[in-house]
Amino acid sequence: MKEVNYKDLRFNPFTLFGNEWMLLSAGNGQTGCNTMTISWGHLGCLWGNNDPTAVVYIRQSRYTKKFVDEEERFSLCVMDKSFKKEMLYLGTVSGRDEDKIAKTGLTPVYADGTVYFAEAKLVLVCKKLYAVDMKKEDFISQEPIVQCYPEGDYHTLYVGKIEKILARDDEYLRPGTCPAE
Ligand SMILES: Cc1cc2nc3c(=O)[nH]c(=O)nc-3n(C[C@H](O)[C@H](O)[C@H](O)COP(=O)(O)O)c2cc1C
Fold first, then answer.
1. What CATH number should be reported for the domain whose range is 2-167?
2. Contacts of 21 (CB under 8 A, 6+ apart)
3. 74: Cβ below 6 Å to ligand 1?
4. How confident is the model at residue 178 (pLDDT cuts 50, 70, 90)?
């Protein structure tokens, strides 16, 4: 894996989240870690010097939320489509109930202040900047409440500054870009 600059990335963020999905992970080598599949999120610029940021949405019931809340950083991993079965499993079963990561055979790498997977194609290391719990009274349209929150299990929104990006190859890079050595 090579470190790359966010300005050299090239992909469709809609399909990256919505179709390819990502693994959102947090934790450390001492007290443990957890991961879950996500398909909701945003990538863009916010604060600082138009800093590259990721926004993710974690329901309050997710075990991964405890790790994200306890740690300074979280990671986002884009996986090859050959891992779809594992991603579906990690997005269906809770780490409260099973050692999910061991069952998938994925290799956790504890580095850069967080945890990510050696098998990832692309890794975004994010430092938490902001978190806010969604509240019923803040919705302008009732549609998302009806569609997504019949049980009142609202998401917490996290903004993370993308501190480091690792790429396995040039799949997500602008043509002609060499990953930084
Ligand atoms: C394709 C897919 C996308 C998902 N996207 C999200 C998401 O964006 N936010 C979220 O809170 N849960 C999402 N989930 C659900 C969690 O991944 C799932 O509940 C997981 O089992 C939580 O694991 P945990 O309890 O170990 O954290 C998604 C699941 C799948 C299969």
1. 2.30.110.10
2. 37, 38, 39, 79, 87, 91
3. no
4. low
